[in-house]
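Quick one:
INPUT:
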């Protein structure tokens, strides 16, 4: 039988997102945005946990001091996994309760980038923010419809970015010393009829893996040539994000959603909201850590 994605663990999220591999504990972490919790699972074991955070959570990343940093509906906050306590950092959109945070990730210098989107509709009322280690928040992009996938190349000279309604993956010149981005251009478009680009990760060959919301697959792309290299079909339509994990970073973990699907659709895709494991034959790179010290 051909290599196919398989359900990793019996756990269906409303809106699964933001998978993240923690190498020390060999644990995969993901968020359920609408389920308002963080899931943790150690593959090959029975160790599974859900941590409620009391509001929508768009992304979570590890911090250098051992805590996690969350992009919550009401802004950035530290989370202590052991005590489950939250410590607020700041909310750059205190005056925009109609928005929430969505996808986010740390850059190669340990700054946390996360963006927002409107809770309703698709007006470009969102933005992309950068939280630096000293707690300073900068607005890096305005006019964002639905801030989603982020990735940096190994040389730390390029940042890739998805604003979902554009249907594109864009590329910026990235300055690792200052954290500035410039010279936005299109790397590639998802072909029509294959859903919308959502979360994204990068492998050691510099190729991008993009989750197709409404497209039932993740696809691998060469951002230099703009060519699609591979498409991996999933038994669910709302594919949200992916990351590399496992001890050798040779497994791809893929999240999905059941939120918004009709009862009839859910009957046709009973695993919607599941997290899947796929062995792509190429290794990924470890997630960057938020450098708060
Ligand atoms: Ca997303």
């Amino acid at each position: 039988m051909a290599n196919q994605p398989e359900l990793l663990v019996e756990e269906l999220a409303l809106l699964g997102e933001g998978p993240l591999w923690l190498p020390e504990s060999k644990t995969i972490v993901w968020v359920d945005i609408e389920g308002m919790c963080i899931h943790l699972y150690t593959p090959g074991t029975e160790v599974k946990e859900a941590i409620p955070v009391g509001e929508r959570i768009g992304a979570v990343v590890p911090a250098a001091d051992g805590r996690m940093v969350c992009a919550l509906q009401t802004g950035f906050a530290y989370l202590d996994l052991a005590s489950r306590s939250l410590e607020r950092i700041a909310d750059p959109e205190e005056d925009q309760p109609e928005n929430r945070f969505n996808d986010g990730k740390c850059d190669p210098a340990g700054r946390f980038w996360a963006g927002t989107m409107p809770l309703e509709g698709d007006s470009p009322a969102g933005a992309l923010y950068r939280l630096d280690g000293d707690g300073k928040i900068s607005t890096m992009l305005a006019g964002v419809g639905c801030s989603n996938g982020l990735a940096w190349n190994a040389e730390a000279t390029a940042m890739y970015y998805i604003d979902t309604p554009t249907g594109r993956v864009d590329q910026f010149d990235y300055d690792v010393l200052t954290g500035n981005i410039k010279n936005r251009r299109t790397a590639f478009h998802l072909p029509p009829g294959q859903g919308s680009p959502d979360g994204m990760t990068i492998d050691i060959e510099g190729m991008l893996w993009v989750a197709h919301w409404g497209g039932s697959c993740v696809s691998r792309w060469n951002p230099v040539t703009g060519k699609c290299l591979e498409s991996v079909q999933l038994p669910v339509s709302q594919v949200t994000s992916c990351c590399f994990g496992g001890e050798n970073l040779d497994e791809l973990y893929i999240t999905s959603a059941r939120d918004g699907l009709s009862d009839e659709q859910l009957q046709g895709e009973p695993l919607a909201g599941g997290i899947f494991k796929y062995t792509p034959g190429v290794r990924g790179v470890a997630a960057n850590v938020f450098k708060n010290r």
